[in-house]
Amino acid sequence: MNPADTAFIILCATFVMLMTPALALFYGGLVRSKNILSTCMHSYAALGMVSILWALFGYSLAFSGDISGLIGNLDHVFLIGVGGEANGPAANLPHNVFMAFQCMFAALTVALISGAYAERIRFSAMLVFSALWTVFVYCPMAHWVWGGGWMAKLGAVDFAGGAVVHMASAAAALACAHAVGPRTDLGKTPMIPNNLPMTLFGGGLLWFGWFGFNAGGAYAADGLAAYAFTNTTIAGSIAMIVWMLYDWHYDRKPSFSGVLVGAVAGLATITPCAGYVEPWAAIIIGAVGSSVCYYAKYV
After folding, report:
1. Cβ distance 167 to 268 under 8 Å?
2. Could you tell me the pTM of the whole model?
């Protein structure tokens, strides 16, 4: 067990936890004023509920043993055996530190989906959906890639959550948007963001937290974490600039909200390979990710 690595991952887990309230601000500033609090509540409720589910049996389903490559067993239900010893998936960390770090990922993933149904779902329905999705989608997906499941056995790698977090939440968000449909008053009332400075603050905190999100994927305070940190900065920056240039070209002026969305696109794109590529590749990845996301909004 390495004390420096332990302190580093505790700090990274704190950064990732901060991303969930940051997401509440990011989404809350983009909706209409009457829906600010309900939209922010989606993220905070996800943080609380998923943390409890994770402690009860979610962590065990994702990281305890292996059943046919599909799901974990219940050896760590109620966090039994998850203490301060280095007997978890990361041999240099206390088991409970690894568990807590992964818990923050699970909570954030559920909160990410909420942007797809903002202003169009009952809070009770959101809670039921989030709980079921965590148990039946996120936990198996985390096991497949990070917990020794069938994808890991095939050699699949995901440095910090490009598949487990972003692809899974994106697929769920698309399904949710299709299921709930458009706003009932779409085209009848203005859909102008109520508070872009609030979104700015949330976006900045997201970027800040992303350093822990990606660098923590190394599970150690080493050169791999440094690569992930550097590539996170580069990809987010180039993606933001590329999106701004697209706005400048097509709309004759840069869009404030577009710049923030572009940065998030680059940060998400670099996540699965943050520790595996050279900085020059992070420039290409961020630029391509921003371009694809920009044009996808017209599809």
Report:
1. no
2. 0.93
